TrEMBL record:
SUPFAM superfamilies: Dehydroquinate synthase-like
Domain Fe-containing alcohol dehydrogenase-like C-terminal: 184-350
Name the record gives this protein: Alcohol dehydrogenase
Domain Alcohol dehydrogenase iron-type/glycerol dehydrogenase GldA: start-end pairs: 9-172
Keywords carried by this UniProt record: Oxidoreductase
Amino acid sequence: MENFIFQNPTKLIFGKGMIARLATEIPVGVKIMVTFGGGSVKKNGVYEQVTAALAGRDYIEFWGIEPNPKIETLRKAVAQCKREGVDFLLSVGGGSVLDGTKLIAAAVRYDGDAWDLVRDGSLIGEILPFGDVMTLPATASEMNRNAVISSIETKEKYGMKVDYPRFSILDPQTTFSLPKYQRAAGMADTFIHVMEQYMTVTGQSPLMDRWSEGILQTLVEIAPRVLEEPHDYDTMADYMLCATMGLNGFIAMGVTEDWATHQIGHELTAINGLTHGHTLAIVFPGLLKVLRDQKMAKILQYGERVWGITEGSDEERATRTIDATERFFRSLGLQTRLHEVGIGEDTICEIERRFNERGVAFGEGHNVTGTVARRILEEVK
Ligand code: NZQ
Ligand code: ZN
């Protein structure tokens, strides 16, 4: 096991009717900006619950943080916060609204352009406190300090570290209105978050391995119900908790991480606009094929423990495990090949070019360069 420091300060407030807790969780006397996406919260009753809980508070609303939050939009929110003396932020929506809110929180006390902070985290100084009502189980942004911010102008998308939410309110009932595609993409995202922290080397921590496998097995078990019975409270509660536990640091203690699938996926979104979780469902099976030898021992462990694949040679079991993984994503209704989502050779070339130009080498083996990214994407053309 590797050395690690673990501290996760987010207060998780989970369950039916918990949005009302906003009334007591937000400190008194602060000027609040409430941030929203495109309006889903007005159709599912979340907006009414939030405004009821904020009755009598001094707050303003900022609407329009889009999926894959754009710096061009966030700059407007930062300017408004500065103008109006906002000192607390409340995000209401999915991971994009919360990630955008994290960037706003970091930029309000910064004098330069907010994009500087995305490119150079060392410039982040004072960060406004923030909390959230999370309505989409996927990113675990509700219990981590990550934000992923995009630029329309440059067609770039980068992850950064900001800060943890003070509190996160998760009422599974808010997810009942999620479109099927968002549920599928959210489950794929959660599945790959676990994989990024698990599918590396064996033998570092049997405990971390089994926690990860527990989340993967739970997702496989509940996926058909999440797709077909999205109004079942207990199913959606399990799904929501899987998503939070997938990327809140609890399964990463002392183990090696990968994250190459995410880096390639971010480029697919930046260049083509494809939904985050969907990009991962395409890239990950290709990555397993290309890095099969490097990851062989873990692929076999995963195949046995999650898919019950125990018969045959190592090579046969690895092949069946990778196939089972791709079949799982397809069972969610997601296409797993680039041509099926209209992505072609030009995008592969551009990703290879960008990675080579940036001189990156992602993954636990520090070997996913532009050239290897090309091979991965060619596997899933
Ligand atoms: O904008 P509104 O109208 O609210 O609609 C949203 C949006 O169109 C809708 N939605 C959200 N909750 C809903 C709902 N519709 C009906 N009912 C509800 N309860 O869903 C659409 C997608 O929302 P979005 O927030 O974009 O999805 P998600 O939560 O998957 O976030 C994706 C973003 O998070 C980043 C991704 O790269 C992407 O930019 N990630 C953030 C991470 C983190 N902070 O740790 C890690 C992830 O790996 C990921 O990279
Ligand atoms: Zn993700």
